[in-house]
Amino acid sequence: MKNILLFTLFVTLVACSGQGNPQTRSGNVDPGNKVLLVSFDGFSAQYLDKTNTPNFDALVKNGIISEGLVPVFPSKTFPNYYAIATGLYPENNGFVGNNMYDPEMDEHYAIRDRDAVEDPRWYEGEPIWNTVEKQGKKAGTMFWVGSEAPVQNMRPTFWKKYDGSIPDSARIDTVIKWMSLDNESEIDLGTLYFSFTDTQGHRYGPASVEVVKAIQRADELMGYLLQRLREEHLMEQTNLIVVSDHGMQEVSRDKIVVLDDYINPEDVEMIAYSPAVMMNAKADKLEDVYQALKKHENHYRVYKKQEIPERFHLKNHQRVPQLLMVADPGYTINTQDFFDSRPDYPSGGTHGFDNNSPQMHALFVAHGPDLASGLRIEELENIHLYLLMTELLGVNPASNDGNWKKISKLIR
């Protein structure tokens, strides 16, 4: 009997020492408090230095800011929003790009394909709203990648199909209503999403006047959100986490890589596009294509699937194709025909570059009753946020790639 008890204790300790520790850790949080996760798409870590942002500044003064939120690679929108939701790297949650091909399903995924977006087969891992709902709490998602599909045959208590025409203030009002319902449907976790900072960054570039105006608009929305939280007496019981999915990099016609200079584009099938190009070679062309690209490696890096750097946490999934090309920051990879047919391409800004690039780092600001005050931290990988949210909500996390040591200092 003694040996059995010791073995049980050993197994428990091992289970609690790695990923997805099933126990909350600090004991300092009030599990009755709420979490509101807010994201401004394409909001760079450097944007708060570009203009006056009094509402963000007020949160930072009494809360937490990081030098940058490090996205997963590729630093694209859908992989990063789903990484935040699950706490898993792309190779562990299946979301390896905005565009994907799954050879087992023999199907393609594209972010504008509604059938694919709402198909739960593409979403692996457990998103935070499922974790919450499984443990007797409620969640409401105002647009978040994965929340439109019945992942694990579940949905949040409240959720909305993406509709970019819904006014920003109406999005806030809806989530505040969900948070303040005086009945059993009152949510404990809410999400909000805004796209306009990304749109302006793509169109005009991160150094533009238009992006400065978008930053100011984001700050005004934060002011409105804080006002509504105070009006509904939610401020004192809400842990607010404000993030983005990635930063933004200036691109131009002066920095291009033309595939036709090195290979015949007909020899490959493009799966995902610049600056993280994923492709399969046709017939027996893999070695020829790879060697040609490797020989002329300049302003990009090329990898066979098995050579992809471990730090990208990408290669160990069937949805990653045979070849990956990663453009140097600021460069664009495409075919001669594509460039010729679009004389003004590329321009403005884009993302998807190496996630170590500072230009790809995103916003992270947090404020609330269970969070530290006046704390500035170094860069934080976004896969740790799932563990932070489960801690703040007092629920047991599912298996994840987060590290408690990375977020323990954020707890008051």
Could you describe the 3D structure shown?
- With 412 residues, the chain is an alpha/beta fold.
- The chain has two domains: 279 residues, Alkaline Phosphatase, subunit A (3-Layer(aba) Sandwich), CATH 3.40.720.10; 92 residues, Gyrase A, domain 2, CATH 3.30.1360.180.
- Helix 7 packs parallel to helix 9.
- The protein is built from 13 helices and 20 strands.
- The strands form six sheets. An eight-stranded mixed beta sheet has the order 7-6-8-1-9-18-2-19, with helices on both faces.
Q: Return the average pLDDT rounded to an integer.
A: 94
Which homologous superfamily in CATH is the superfamily of the largest domain?
Answer: Alkaline Phosphatase, subunit A
The neighbouring-strand order within the major sheet is 7-6-8-1-9-18-2-19
The secondary structure category is: alpha/beta
Can you summarize the main beta sheet? 8 strands, mixed
How many helices in DSSP terms? 13
Low-confidence stretches: 1-23
Shape: globular
State which percent range the strand residues make up.
15-25%
